[in-house]
């Protein structure tokens, strides 16, 4: 299929979206009350807003994926729930992944999953699970997975799992890689036991380039890999290792040959100084092969527990123009 018309369609959509983003955003409140019913009488003659366009096959884009390490009632999650275009992925983290995923969390997850992204898809919600670089007891890891996927009502309220503190090395005889591949299969089996038609999402976060064995066909450990987590200063100077994957012989490389969909890599950048730097960060992430990214002005010790100084909407909207 010729790509020129495809790119033209995407460019047209980007122009339309940019125009929409120029309009003032409505105020967002933590109560997230439903909008009031419009007054009766003749309909307004205003032109309706353009519907989000689905992703065009063959054209790689960039999506916003947000680690939100706050409690269910926090204003950060209320803001994300109200944001349009919505983030493509939101990671929920109740008590480092092991606090009960109770009714407040289930309601918040459902509300987030109702969001519509710039590509016309629904937001995916992931549950946070730490792995201690492969050293945490596998039974404890599976119990954390069950906390999200085995709910009292027997329904799925999340779309998958975000495994954190993941090893980036294959291990002796690929043992570490195989450990994470087994965890991915456990997530898949548990999701499909609840809903055979569900499309699960598994993310591994080593926080840096990962060994290419993790993406080896037949042994893949995740759908998406966080291959950068660090500061803006490092990301834009000497902190980028030079690729999303590496091997002992060839060193670092982008990894595009292991990622035909353009969605396997996710970059997380904090200490971003302003909105202009946020846009530059997203453009850089796209150029470095990321399919997902997130830039925030927040800083350590936890840059994922507060909103950036700019609105989430400015980030989700700008990302939709890349591609």
Question: Strand fraction band?
Answer: 15-25%
Strand order across the largest sheet: 1-2-3-4-5-7-10-11
Overall pLDDT score: 86
**Helix/sheet category:** alpha/beta
Stretches with pLDDT under 50, minimum 5 residues: 1-49
Radius of gyration over C-alpha positions, nearest whole angstrom: 20 Å
The amount of helix comes to 25-40%
* Sequence of secondary-structure elements: HEHEHEHEHEEEHEEEHEH
Question: What does it look like?
Answer:
The chain is of the alpha/beta class. Helix content is 29%, strand content 16%. The chain contains eight helices and eleven strands. Strands 1-2-3-4-5-7-10-11 form an eight-stranded parallel β-barrel, surrounded by six helices. A three-stranded mixed β-sheet has the order 6-8-9, with no helix packed on it. A hairpin with a 3-residue loop joins strand 8 (245-247) and strand 9 (251-253). Helix 2 packs parallel to helix 3 and helix 4 (138-149) runs parallel beside helix 5. The two termini are 17 Å apart. The model is unreliable at 1-49 (pLDDT under 50).
């Amino acid at each position: 299929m010729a790509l020129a018309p495809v790119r033209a369609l995407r460019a047209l959509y980007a122009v339309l979206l940019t125009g929409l983003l120029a309009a003032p955003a409505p105020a967002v409140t933590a109560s997230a009350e439903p909008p009031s019913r419009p007054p009766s009488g003749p309909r307004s003659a205003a032109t309706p807003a353009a519907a989000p366009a689905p992703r065009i096959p063959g054209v790689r884009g960039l999506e916003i994926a947000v680690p939100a390490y706050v409690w269910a009632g926090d204003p950060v999650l209320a803001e994300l729930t109200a944001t349009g275009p919505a983030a493509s992925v939101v990671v929920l983290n109740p008590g480092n992944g092991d606090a009960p995923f109770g009714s407040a969390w289930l309601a918040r997850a459902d509300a987030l999953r109702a969001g519509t992204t710039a590509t016309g898809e629904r937001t995916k919600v992931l549950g946070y699970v730490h792995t201690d670089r492969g050293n945490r007891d596998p039974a404890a890891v599976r119990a954390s997975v069950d906390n999200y996927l085995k709910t009292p009502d027997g329904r799925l309220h999340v779309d998958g799992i975000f495994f954190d503190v993941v090893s980036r090395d294959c291990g002796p005889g690929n043992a570490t890689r195989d450990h994470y591949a087994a965890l991915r299969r456990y997530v898949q089996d548990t999701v499909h036991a609840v809903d055979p038609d569900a499309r699960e999402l598994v993310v591994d976060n080593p926080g840096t380039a990962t060994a290419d064995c993790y993406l080896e066909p037949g042994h893949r450990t995740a759908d998406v890999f966080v291959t950068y987590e660090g500061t803006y200063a490092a990301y834009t100077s000497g902190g980028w290792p030079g690729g999303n994957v590496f091997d002992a012989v060839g060193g670092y490389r982008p990894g595009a040959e292991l990622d035909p969909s353009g969605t396997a890599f996710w970059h997380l950048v904090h200490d971003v100084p302003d909105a202009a730097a946020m846009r530059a960060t997203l453009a850089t992430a796209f150029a470095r092969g990321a399919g997902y990214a997130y830039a925030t002005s927040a800083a350590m010790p936890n840059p994922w527990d507060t909103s950036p100084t700019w609105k989430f909407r400015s980030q989700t909207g700008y990302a939709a123009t890349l591609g």
